[in-house]
Amino acid sequence: MKNIYFIGFMGVGKSTISYRVSRILKKKIIDTDRELEKRQGKAIHEIFTEKGELYFRKLESELLREISQQTDLIISCGGGMILKEENRKLMKDSGIVVLLTATINTIYRRVALNDRRPLLKGKKTKAHLRAMYSKREPIYKELADIEVSINRKTVSMISEEVITKVKEIENHV
Ligand code: S3P
After folding, report:
1. Which residues does a 6 A CB cutoff place in the pocket of ligand 1?
2. Do 151 and 102 contact (CB within 8 A), yes or no?
3. Mutate-to-test residue for ligand 1 from 6, 19, 33, 63, highest number of ligand atoms within 8 A of CB
4. pLDDT digits (tens, 9 = 90+) for 91-100
5. Ligand 1 center to residue 11 CA distance, Å?
6. Summary mean pLDDT of the chain
7. Which atom number of ligand 1 is nearest to the Cα of residue 118?
8. Whose CA is nearest to atom 10 of ligand 1?
9. pLDDT at 173 over 70
10. Nearest C-alpha neighbor of 80 from the set 125, 50, 110, 48
């Protein structure tokens, strides 16, 4: 079976939904940020401050290259994983790509909950989120096989919607 990759902007709930989907489908999950933290023995924001974003992007791509060789995984990707063409190709070639979307208001509310995101440090404004989101949105949409909005839905509803759409794709190939 192909891998299922969750992509989308910070704060749309990729980790939560992918964990729930992995439990329902009884598949192994890899959350790329958590896996990098485990391997580096550091939090993502520490990797950013100590080694910089480029170094983080390199680690992230190396990890994707490694895990995309495996099959039948649920993979929750950091929000910026889609920025590199080589990463997009790896995902496209080895799995079904699920995009989670939300409105800027929802994202703003959700990212306000913690201070762990280095790219939002000192810049947690709607204007900054909107600017980043509009740059990335075409890339997310172009890559996605499935798109699910999280607005006004529970974790269960979103997970079921994802699973139904994944099964539709699997049954057509
Ligand atoms: C990033 C998103 C983060 C994390 C890093 C960079 C991004 O993951 O990988 O801070 O560039 O959008 P989440 O999307 O899980 O917040």
Report:
1. 10, 14, 33, 44, 78-80, 117-119
2. yes
3. 33
4. 999 999 999 9
5. 9
6. 96
7. 10
8. 117
9. no
10. 48
* Strands of 146-149's sheet in order across: 28-31, 73-76, 3-7, 95-101, 146-149
Q: Note the pLDDT tens digit of each residue in 116-162.
A: 899 999 888 999 999 999 999 999 999 999 999 999 999 999 999 99
* Cα–Cα nearest to 139, from 100, 84, 91: 84
| Per-residue pLDDT, 114 | 82
Q: Which of 10, 44, 87 to mutate to test the pocket of ligand 1 (most atoms within 8 A of CB)?
A: 10
pLDDT in tens, 50-84: 999 999 999 999 999 999 999 999 999 999 999 99
